[in-house]
Write a structure and sequence with these properties.
By secondary structure, the protein is an all-alpha fold. It has a domain of 58 residues. It contains three helices and no strands. The chain is extended.
Length: 86
Amino acid sequence: MSEQERLMRRINAYRFALWELHIYLDTHPGDCQAAQKHAEYQKTVNELIAQYEAAYGPMNESPKTASRWAWISDPWPWDPSEEAEK
């Protein structure tokens, strides 16, 4: 296995753990230890991606600029828009 493949496997392993923690935190939002672990893994993934991109080029992914809680902000898809009320 090449170094590129090893690095990609590490990235994918941390991403899997991040996703599992994300699902757990959706149902246990008060678990500070899990939230801290999520932040730690996110930092590690970002560092690994930067390392990968420096060595092998861009991974062609969209930036993760939104907060993990952005989905909860208004308006909800079923809420009437302000334009429709006018």
